[in-house]
Amino acid sequence: MYKLGIDIMGGDYAPYETLKGVKLALDEYKDLEVVLYGDENIIKEQLKDLSRVEICHTTKFIDMGEKDPVTALRKNRDASLALALTDAKNNKVMGVVSAGPTQALVVGAHLFLKRMDNMRRTAICPIIPSVSGKKTLLLDSGANVELKPEDLCDLAFFASVVCKCLKISDNPKVGLLNIGTEPGKGRMVDKETYYMLKDDKRINFYGNVEGKEILTSDCDILVTDGFTGNMVMKTMEGTALGTGEILKNEIKKSFLAKIGYALFMRKAFKNYKDSLNPKKIGGAMLLGVNAPIIKAHGSSDAFAFKNGIKQCLDLVRSGLIKDVKENWDASNITE
Amino acid sequence: MYKLGIDIMGGDYAPYETLKGVKLALDEYKDLEVVLYGDENIIKEQLKDLSRVEICHTTKFIDMGEKDPVTALRKNRDASLALALTDAKNNKVMGVVSAGPTQALVVGAHLFLKRMDNMRRTAICPIIPSVSGKKTLLLDSGANVELKPEDLCDLAFFASVVCKCLKISDNPKVGLLNIGTEPGKGRMVDKETYYMLKDDKRINFYGNVEGKEILTSDCDILVTDGFTGNMVMKTMEGTALGTGEILKNEIKKSFLAKIGYALFMRKAFKNYKDSLNPKKIGGAMLLGVNAPIIKAHGSSDAFAFKNGIKQCLDLVRSGLIKDVKENWDASNITE
Q1: Could you tell me which residues come within 8 angstroms of residue B120 by beta carbon, excluding any fewer than 6 positions away?
Q2: ipTM confidence score
Q3: What pTM was estimated for this model as a whole?
Q4: Under 8 Å between Cβ of A210 and A202
Q5: Residue A285 contacts residue A310 (beta carbons within 8 Å)
Q6: Nearest to A321, CA basis, from A92, A94, A87
Q7: A143 touches chain B (CB under 8 A)
Q8: Which residues of chain B lie closer than 8 angstroms to A130, CB-CB?
């Protein structure tokens, strides 16, 4: 059995959708046990079957609109997220899932759970789709606005272990996001990172990858600093939505096209949207800390939240943290 | 009459498509005169009517695949692009259009044309579409990987004058690309730039703009350093193409959808593609130098190249450079 800590109070549709997600996950994964952090009354009202469920009662939580999550967490060590992360530190749970604010999760993981020994930085790591249907890890997409080359190497290694654990690839290819494919492109930090990744024996380095290749590249992992990663991730999101909107407007303008859509193409459009839907994948991972942590989408419905729980469960089942620790010492410098 | 310098040897389809583009432009714009830099024999063979055309003969040019454009330009001061930029410096032509390599244009503009007095940096500035159909200037998208806050302010001011000259807006709104909308977001350089833009009286500052809002924001101008701008621009390009590809694959999978596309929706898809087509807009501008310079798409066909010439002509007609110089001295610091 694997026991996960679930913050049922985080997210736009918490606690009702998160609790529905928990129920779906418990029904589907028989090796799953959960500790639920949140209001006991609501939990008992929503979940009739409490086998494999422990409740850690609290009515405090970090609001989705919280401007200063650091202070909020410091002042509320009994907020649902803080309690879940503290239990992960004390090995009471093996991983944590929350749909609460990203920055609260990043800060909370530092405050309550601690970074893994050797890791100097953490990273937010969403999984993005690609044209061919494969999955790609993009990190850091927002935990640290600046990262040193050695931090990027450690994070790339961590992500490589994640890729193996999630069975995305046996020998994951790591690309460095950059403004050109040749070595020597980019800022000083990018140039240095290029050569350091190339020499790191823990990593299967592919080379530089440009923004225009993100959806088509062969890489399983794309690394960059948290500023660039966040810009890129949100630009992808905005462009996919924006171009979809432009297409929708063109369809609406034409009577014929509206008919074509309604009669023939609704399904193809639905599949298209599904393949870009982050809810199907789960959530972003927080890498670099001592337990698998999944940040589910803030707007998670029950289905999305269940997938976030599944992702965390997969990482726990696979022994991610142990794997990272055991493989850490492989030399990362060429002789 | 306005005389522009046209590098007919730059671009994937030069010189035949570029010459066709010149012909289209001369037919359409009766106030246009051109100096064509390139092979005299080909020019005379392709253009029957040489009224309003001067030829500056050279057989040298910067290859599209040139890895080291700096050295290539230094060694070939009689390459077509170098000659055009030199003539711009000597006021023999009022602006330059080239579909050659971007880095060659950036370097060449520094070597032969020179920066405008006061401008410490130049910027590559493409025009991007938006969901509402308006145009947005995105800079710097690749001339300088790093830019100081004061450089970004000067470039934002320059771009504001461009927006007025191109009649995109009378009072253009400037947004700062960032990883959150609140002040205080981003790297140190972004935080400093935020407050400097806010205090700059030459600029109508809107605030921070996230990647997900690029296609929907109200801003006429989005500023950031050349590394981030280049990543964002290419990510948009890749996402638009990639998601289009995913949709195409979904349509191909379904017989019904294929029929729907062929019978009803071909036109709507064409309009959609057209609205995202950079060829309709012209090219990216190089801002900060002493004459309007347009970098047409490397893959420009005649139509795209003609639009690049039009864009340069519009800027020359509007008196851009004079406007920038006259407005430079408006105080950019609050008292």
Answers
A1: B148, B150, B151, B154
A2: 0.89
A3: 0.90
A4: no
A5: no
A6: A94
A7: no
A8: 242
